[in-house]
Amino acid sequence: METELKQYSIAELCDGFVYNELEEKGLYGLSGKLTIQPEYQRNYLYAEDNGKKEVAVIESVLKQYPLGLLYFNRLPNGRLEVLDGQQRITSLGRFLTDKFSVMSNDLPYRFHALPKDQQKLIEKTKMLVYECEGTESEIKQWFQTINIAGIPLNEQEELNAVYSGPFVTKARAVFSNSRNANVQKWSAYVRGSVKRQDFLNTALDWVSHGEVEEYMQAHRHDTDIEELQAHFGDVIAWVESIFADCYNEMCGLKWGVLYDDYHDTPYDQKKITARAAELMDDPCVRNRKGVFEYLLGGEADTRLLDVRVFDDATKRRVYRKQTAEARTNGVSNCPLCAMGHEANRTKLWGEREMEADHVSAWSRGGATTEENCQMLCKTHNRAKGNR
Ligand SMILES: [Zn+2]
Hints:
With about 375 residues, the protein is α+β, with helices and mostly antiparallel strands.
C-alpha cells in the first residue's frame, strides 16, 4: 500500500460541500473530487447530543488545536474517498454552510456571522491528510485497524465496512435510516439506535438465525434485500398478530428466535392478549420480560417468569404448625411421606430438610400466600416438580 502525506486547507476540503438532510450525511468536498461518505462509512453522529461534538470541532479550530490526521483512499480513477475523518469533515462542512452555530462571548454565531478574521482563520487552517492507494482488501484491513476519533466502530459498523457492496448499501437505506417512517413502529420490539446499526444488526440476526457475518458474506453482492426485508417484516407482523397490546418489556426480546420456534403454532389472539395483561399485572411475576415466551410456550415453563417464592418467615411458621400437628398425630411432618408406606411415614424432618410448595400450583392460579404454602421433604418437593 502506498501512502502520501498531504495538506489541505479547510476551505479546500469543504469546497463544494453538500449536506444531504434526507440521508443525514455529508457528500462531497475538494471541489467534488472527494467523496465524504463512501458506502462503508457510517452515518453522521456528531450532530447527536445537541451537536456537542460538531461544536467542539469548530472550537478546536478557532483555538488552533490539532484536529488529528485524516485518511483518504485514492481510487484508480483519481478520485478520493474518506477512510477516516468523515465526522470531522462533515462538521467543518456543515459549519461553513451555516448549518449550526458556535458560541462566542455568550452569543451564537453561524459561520457567515463570525468576524471576518475568524472566518479567514478557519478557512486557512491546514489539515493533514494521509492519502493511500492499495487493493480493496488492504484498504479494508487498514480501515478496521484505525479507530475513528472518539467513537470506536461497533461490530455491525465494522461488518458493514468489511462486506461493503450493493447489499449493505440497500440494507442501510432501509434499516439505518432514521427518516424511515417504520422505525418508530419497529422500536417497540427492537432496542438500540438506527444510526449505530442496531436495527440492521437485528434484522440480519433474525434472517440468519444468529449467523450475521456468514449471511453478509454470502449476500454481499446481492442487488436486492428482499429476503432480509421480508423476514424482518414477517417477524414483526407475527408478534403483532399474537399480542394485541404492546408493552415496554417487549423491546429487545429475541423475537427472531421466538418466531423460529413458534410461528407454526396457532394462538387465540384474544385469549393470549388477556393472559398477557393478567401476568403483567401479577405481583408474583418478577421477570415480566419472560411473559411472552412463557405464553407462546403454552404456559409450561414457569422458570421464565421467576415467580416470587415464599419468604423465610412464612416458611418457618408453616413448618412449625405442620410439625406440631404431625407430632400429635404420630406421622411425618411431610404430608406426602405421611401418606406413604415407607420408613419415612413417621419421620420428622428438620426445617432445613424441607422446602416450600404451592398447595394449589401457581400456574393454576394458586397464590404465593401462607394459606397456600406447605412444607414438603426435599425428595417429595422435587418429585412434584415445577407445576
Ligand atoms: Zn416427603
